[in-house]
Amino acid sequence: MVGDELIPYCTIPAVMESVANGETSFGIIPIENSIEGPVGITLDSLAHKFDLKIYKEIIIPINQNLIVNPGTKMEDIEDVYSHAQAIAQCQEFISEHRIQPHYAVSTARASKDIVGFKNKAAIGNRVAAELYGLEILEANIQDTDNNETRFVVVSKENHKPTGKDKTSIIFSIYEDRPGGLYNILGIFQKDNINLTKIESRPSKKGLGKYLFFVDFNGHIEDKIIQDILSEIDENTYFLKVLGSYPEF
Fold it and tell me: Which of 14, 100, 111, 146 could form a disulfide with 122 if both were Cys (CB 3.0 to 4.6 A apart)?
């Protein structure tokens, strides 16, 4: 498996490409955070770039830490580096200490890049600090204690049915008209299928054009889910099944 914690310089598209090319069997990527919401690059990559399946989901509590070179004090720090999501999760701390934030491709890469600079810090986890001989100056600096990230395991195959599964899909409707989205969602209501999540992303085909990401209970091998997807396919411009996998 690959991911930000195991291969420091792996970006989300690189992880997905390694699975798509058969270099690895599984990849772990973040898909949403309880503070910052969806991870846009993951959703866009699933929609537009890679034909991969969500095989499993993992929810992990996230604790962000201020990582520095040994001997560094808070008053020494002028700049802080991290992934955009981590920076966003620690806005109050960054503002309070008047530190200039900078984006990096990953929290691990940010930690490597500050080695040897006492005026620079990184935001990340203990693994990154230990990997590069750094120290944690301040622990748990995220804006809220209830900080969790949902990761998904991607593969080329769907997970087999377990009896307690969920399915993720993306679709777009033909045009922006009253009731268009309502009519699609009504297909689930008609068959008493519970939606666990729905959100929209720009389709990249012009202003006002969106893709809708929907999670719902059931597995693609269930007859009722197959019938629902068939009806949705007949009434949408685009439909892509992202996978069926066990509920966390």
Answer: 111
The pLDDT-based confidence of 177 (bands split at 50, 70, 90) is low
Distances (CA, A) of 11 to 3, 7, 63, 191: 8, 9, 20, 39
Q: Which one of 26, 149, 212, 213 is the catalytic residue?
A: 149
The pLDDT value recorded for residue 10 is 57
Judging by beta carbons within 10 Å of its beta carbon (0-12, 13-18, 19+), is residue 167 exposed, middle or buried?
A: buried
Catalytic residue (choose from 151, 171, 212, 213): 151
Report how far residue 174's alpha carbon sits from residue 184's, in angstroms, rounded to the nearest whole number. Answer: 11
What distance in Å separates the CA atoms of residue 82 and residue 214, rounded to the nearest whole number? Answer: 30
Predicted TM-score (pTM) of the model is: 0.78
Is position 26 annotated as part of the catalytic site? no
Look up 167 and say whether it is catalytic: no
Q: How far does Cα 3 stand from its chain's mean position?
A: 12
Strand partners, 167: 216, 244
